[in-house]
Amino acid sequence: MGACILATRAQQPTQPLMPGEAPKPTKYVALEEQKEHLVFFQGFTLSVDGYGPVAMMVSDYGTLEGALRLNLKSTFFPIIEAGIGKCSKEDFNTKVSYKTNAPFVRIGIDFNMLKDKFQSNRLYLGARYGLSKFKYNITGPALTDPIWGGSQSFSLRDIDCTSHWAELVFGVEVRILKNFHMGWAVRYKMEISSTKHDAAKPNCIPGYGFTTNSNCWGGTYSLIFDLNWGMKKSHKRGVNVEIRDVQPTEHALTPTQDDSQTSIDHEEGTEDGATEVEE
Q1: To pair with 125 at 20 to 30 A between CA atoms, which of 69, 84, 186, 199?
Q2: H or E, element range at 183
Q3: Distance between CA atoms of residues 159 and 271, nearest Å
C-alpha cells in the first residue's frame, strides 16, 4: 500500500537572477505522516475481589470470586465472573436462621468511557447476567402449642432454588505497576426470577445478596493482573523518508514560481528532486 508524503519548499524571496548566476538549490523537507492503531486483541486479565472475603469475615454475607476478562482495542471488555457466596444469618427477634453456601456465575461486558484508549487507566460502564443454583436451610427454635401443649422445632433443609438477576456496573481502574491494576466497582442488582417454594423464599442468593427488596446494591474491590505477555499496545504506521537539497535545472523551477507551493510525489528521479516514498 502506497502512502502520500507532503513535501514543502522553504520560502525564499523571489528576485531576478543576475547574468551568469545559477539558480540556488531549493531545500525540500519531507513531513512524515504517522498514525497509531490499536491492536484489536490486547490480551486478557485475571482479577480477584478483595472486598468479598473481608465482608465474609465481618458480616452475615460474603463471597470468594475471580474474573477472566478479554481486552478488545482497550474499548470493549467481555468478562466472566465466578465464585462462591456464603450466607449465615440469624434474625435477632425470631431466632430463625438462614444458611447457604453455593457457587454462582456472571457473564457480561464492560465499555471503557475514556477517550484516550492508549492510556492504562480506565473508567467504564458494564452489564452482567447472573445465575446461581443452590440449596438453603431455614431453621428456628422449638415453638410451644398454646392450646394442645407440646413443642415442635422448625426446620427446612436442602431447599433447591435457581435464581437469575441482572446488574449494572460502574467502575474505575488505575495502573499501579507495569502489569498490575487496582480498581473498584459499584453494582446495582435487579432480581429477575427465583424458584418458588411453598414454605419460604430464599433470604440471600449467592452472588446477588439479600432479597429483602427486588433490587439491591453491591460492590467489588479488584486486584487485576494483565496477562498479555508483551503484546504491543499499538502499531505505528509510517514511512521512511529522505531529506536532501535539490539542485534545480533550468527546466525545474523558475524565479517567478510561488515558493510556498506544496508537491506530492511517489517516483524516484523526477526533475524537481522529490524523494521516493516507501512504506
Answers
A1: 84
A2: strand 180-194
A3: 89
* Three cell numbers written together for 154: 422448625
- Cell 431455614 locates to 138
Closest to 97 in 3D by CA, of 203, 176, 13, 199:
203
Tell me the HSE value of 113 on the side-chain side, using a 13 A CA sphere: 9
Count of Cβ atoms closer than 10 Å to residue 62 Cβ: 20
Cell numbers describing residue 175: 495502573
- Burial label for 147, CB within 10 Å (0-12, 13-18, 19+), is exposed
CA 137 → CA 158, 160, 223, 245, distances in Å?
Answer: 6, 10, 33, 87
pTM to 2 decimal places: 0.68
Q: E strands along 16-75, which residues?
A: 26-31, 35-38, 41-49, 61-72
Radius of gyration for the chain, computed over Cα atoms and rounded to the nearest angstrom? 35
Q: Which residues contact 260 (CB under 8 A, 6 or more apart)?
A: 9, 11
C-alpha count within 13 angstroms, C-beta hemisphere, residue 146: 0
Beta bridge partners of 46: 68, 225
Question: Position of cell 432479597?
Answer: 211
Q: How far apart are CA 166 and CA 108, in angstroms?
A: 10
Do you know the residue count of the chain?
279
